[in-house]
């Protein structure tokens, strides 16, 4: 049995005041972490505030990390810094970072290694563009991303991380992948993991879907056998919708 995960990705939203309002509103309402792993991936400016106020059942994640331990990298944040403020998760390889900040598969791989060294759980994003989907090349594209992201990791490390399948054409567009499209691609990713690391690891690893997930489509997505939860942008910004998603996952 894989424990479902609902991870909010706030992207570049929420001031400190807004983040505090949110955490106070959701804290007591979140179902037990035995039922669903609930994560909020917030901007760096509010991580410490959220960690200090995280309830029993909420965990906090960052949205990026630098691959080096320390150094002259103006504006960047290290894994040691995240670990030291009490962050437990970090999103790596989000398509917005790949697209706007030139994040390559090689960098994604280095960032995963670095995060694991500091005990952070990477939430590793992969997903194809609309042109790949239309050309029928989704599977080879995503497979290549997975292979490169996980290069050099051992089975125990792979088992512990979280993958998120986020088709780029579904992010922030209101155009969700159908339940079948999401499940089929995630099943394919799981088969890729089985090929690379064996069936036990493939059966253990959590693979989330992301891309216009909302309170109306979450149940259908979670009813699919291979979808272990969701990485959520827009619908994670309001306590009410975020809590409905978490509650839906607690019933999976
Ligand atoms: P939306 O849920 O806003 O489409 O964003 C998805 C996403 O990018 C989560 O990482």
| Ligands bound, unique | 1,3-dihydroxyacetonephosphate
| Rg for CA atoms | 17 Å
End-to-end separation in angstroms reads 11 Å
Q: Overall 3D geometry?
A: globular
Q: Give the class from helix and strand content and strand pairing.
A: alpha/beta
Helicity level? 40-55%
Query: Which runs of at least 5 residues are low in confidence (pLDDT < 50)?
Result: none
Give the overall average pLDDT: 96
| Domains, number | 1
- DSSP, total strands: 8
Reported CATH architecture: Alpha-Beta Barrel
Question: Mind explaining what this structure looks like?
Answer:
The protein is α/β, with parallel strands linked by helices. It has one domain (5-250): Aldolase class I (TIM Barrel). 44% of the residues lie in helices and 15% in strands. The protein has helices at residues 16-27, 47-53, 79-84, 95-100, 105-117, 130-135, 138-149, 155-160, 179-197, 199-204, 218-222, 239-250, and strands spanning 5-9, 37-41, 58-62, 89-92, 121-126, 162-165, 206-210, 229-232. An eight-stranded parallel beta barrel has the order 1-2-3-4-5-6-7-8, surrounded by five helices. α1 packs parallel to α12 (239-250) and α7 crosses α9. It is globular and about 45 Å long. The chain starts with a strand and ends with a helix. The model has no long low-confidence stretch (mean pLDDT 96). 1,3-dihydroxyacetonephosphate binds next to β8.
